Sequence to fold (704 residues):
Amino acid sequence: MAVVKQRRRSLAPAVPNYTEADVRALSAANNEPVWLLESRLAAWELYEDMPMPTLNDEDWRRTDYRHIRWDEADRIITPNGATLDIVPPYNREPLIGDRQGGLLVVVDGKIVQHEVADELAGQGIIFTDLRTACRDYADLVRPNLMTKAVLPGEGKFAALHAALWTHGVFLYVPRGKAAELPFHVVFYNTHPGASLGHVLVVLEENAQATMLVDYASSPAEQHSAYIGATELLVGDAANLQYVGLQDWNRQTYEFSHQRARVGQNANLDWITGTMGGRLVKTYMELELDGLGAHGRMSGFFFADNEQLFDHDTQQNHNAPITVSDLLFKGAAKDHARTVWQGMIKSLPNMQKIDGFQASRNLVLSEHARMDGIPGLEIEADDVACSHAATFGTLEKEPVFYLMSRGIPRPTAELMVIDGFFDELLQRIPFERVRERLQAAMEAKIIGA
Amino acid sequence: MGAALEIRNLHVSVEDKPILRGVNLTVKQGEVHALMGPNGSGKSTLANVLLGHPAYEVTAGQIIFEGEDLLEMEADERSRAGLFLAFQYPVSIPGVTLANFLRQAINARMKAKDPDSKGISIPEFRRLLKAKMDLLQMDHSFAGRYLNEGFSGGEKKRAEILQMATLEPRIAILDETDSGLDIDALRIVSDGVNKLRGPNLGVLVITHYQRILNYIQPQYVHVMLEGQIVESDGPELALRLEEMGYDWIREKYNAL
Fold:
């Protein structure tokens, strides 16, 4: 008689295997200042007190990550001698303009390249890795690192990140200074395991900057975890253009928190592209704190094969006369799944706010599934807020029309899909960023 | 001798409902034919089938173009072979500009002829497009607009003829190109077609009304009724239909 073995899956996700000793060891290995160790340990306590998120949590209802193999993914990635050469040229080259104000390349947690343009000297602009910044510019980092934007207590992965972040970047632009040349950051991993990257941008009053962060890794068979945090602090009347492009290998699980705070009459243009990874759960939150603050969020995503992308966005209008404008456009093919869950919120009596959110989804396979859940919680009456989620498939008529002019089917389909994304790409003022996203999209469609 | 489009005993169904029931028609390069008939007689179905629209099923018959079986070809191959359809209701395609689209269409032709072709150069394409737009009195800003998106009825029809002028087909089918056009737009569109007329272009003008035929004068006029071509004659047939309507045709053939 055959014995059928059934494997039962427990409802509770497995937990990565970390201890307080890991936190202390990481901090000690890097000679971190005491305040930093203490903040890591405080976060560790929060982490230990929180359960792993499960499908019973509203935010995680559609995102089952229990298949992550923590025994592979939780080993913190350490440098193995890889240098800048391992990073593909297209990840390194300037994507904005011909010259970069600064380039910081982190491979396996190690800084392999750090350049700052001469023009920036003497302006008080700081562009360096976060660990150096914690040591050399503690007075600027300490008040801003996970105290204003992403807080350790807001989630299991936020706490884990605060306790164990492995590398990061710090950009600081003092009051009234404009960094004309863009900054470029590359977080690249060459082998599987865990990395916890941090982005901290502080623009003082009336400052200006543009920064692009590239996330990528070499293909691997074993699982990886990226537990990230991005903090964008945009002071009064400051102006930040920020681009994040994620292209992890297909065995990477990302759990990230990103939050921007935008001051009075300040402006943030926040662009993200999500292409890689096996499973991505990202919170992106826009806090419009000051009167007249303006924030625009533009999200490109394209999931294929077994990918699952879950974007959780919030536009919080914490002051009157604030404007937020979110557009997320994505496609899913094969067996991919995507979730976008958005919320526009206002504090009571925040008048004359203008909040807009739209999620546009292109479902390219009958097995793909896309969810878009818009939301509004507005407690004021003199407001202009709207939200929309739309879903469509690749329609036959436009494809036939293009073919009837001699264009072969694959090109015709590509053109229609390209056209779908055009509305989003038009919001991106950087030609090479658009080209990168287009190339990623085409590779996904062709199945390269 | 020029190329010929030969439709032989064509039967077509949509969702198992027969629409065309044995159509026979030959259009040669250099000829202009008009296909008239009441609403629902199958004229637009014929136009779409000729280009291979996926919604229609050919149940019998043949379409031969230059000796080749058109039914074996996809829509893009038919186009590259020299067939063109000016759609009655051109679909809008957001995010795809008219210029980008036409350049892709030209490049597809060049690549089909020579796989190593790099396609038309941008300056050359710009010159070509401007010349063709001037022919149709179109503002050059049209090139940067999304294909048919927000175009008025007249603008859509002009854009169709612009495509025809650019792609230089051997046989063009104009499906109700006159519908929705005011008299000025009709004149511009017809002038555009007339400038393209010549020994290298055969045209099949599909229309309800005689009106467009005052501008684009056919040598042959055919009448379609219930999925068959029932009358074929010279241009005087169109005038007779204008004067008497379609009832006499119905009576004549329902009696058969």
